[in-house]
Amino acid sequence: MTVQKSLVVEWRHAEGEGEPCYRCSDTGHTFIDLLDEVIPLLESDGITVKQTERLVQAGTRNRIYLNGRPLEELLDEAGRAQTYCHSTKWMMLEEARRAVIGPDGVACQEAPEILFRKSILKSLEE
């Protein structure tokens, strides 16, 4: 497996829509706050980060893509990988990603911060 040397963070939304809500369930950070923390680490490893915005047709989901992949998909993959770490079949597993109503009644995608971090790394895999 090789690692891509760039991360393209693309926000796809209809005109007039605010940023989508992605929030870390354990730390309360937004994905954008977390990304601001992670960018210097990626850049110190030689990975360039480019943030873009694309207007899409009204009614299309307002979401973030990492290297062309929806963040929700990456979160789900990272969550499935977490289950490999559990040694017993009877252990209760929490949902990795869940939709919740966040501030101001906005629908949010929520997951533990480690899954957001793993999603960023997963998006760099070729």
Describe it for me?
By secondary structure, the protein is an alpha/beta fold. It has one domain. The protein is 29% helix and 28% strand. The strands form 2 sheets. The chain has a 4-stranded mixed β-sheet with strand order 3-1-4-5. It has a 3-stranded mixed β-sheet with strand order 2-7-6. Strand 6 and strand 7 form a beta hairpin. Helix 2 (71-82) packs across helix 3 (113-123). The protein is globular, with a radius of gyration of 15 Å. It starts with 5 loop residues before the first strand and ends with a helix.
Which overall shape is indicated by the principal axes computed on the Cα atoms?
globular
* DSSP summary, beta strand count: 7
Strand arrangement, major sheet: 3-1-4-5
| Uncertain ranges | none
Element order: H for helix, E for strand? EEHEEEHEEH
Q: How many domains, as an integer? A: 1
Query: Strand-residue fraction?
Result: 25-35%
How many helix segments? 3
- How large, in whole angstroms, is the Cα Rg? 15 Å
Q: Major sheet, described briefly?
A: 4 strands, mixed
Helix content: 25-40%
Query: Average pLDDT value?
Result: 87
Query: Structural class of the helices, strands and pairings?
Result: alpha/beta
Distance from first to last alpha carbon: 7 Å
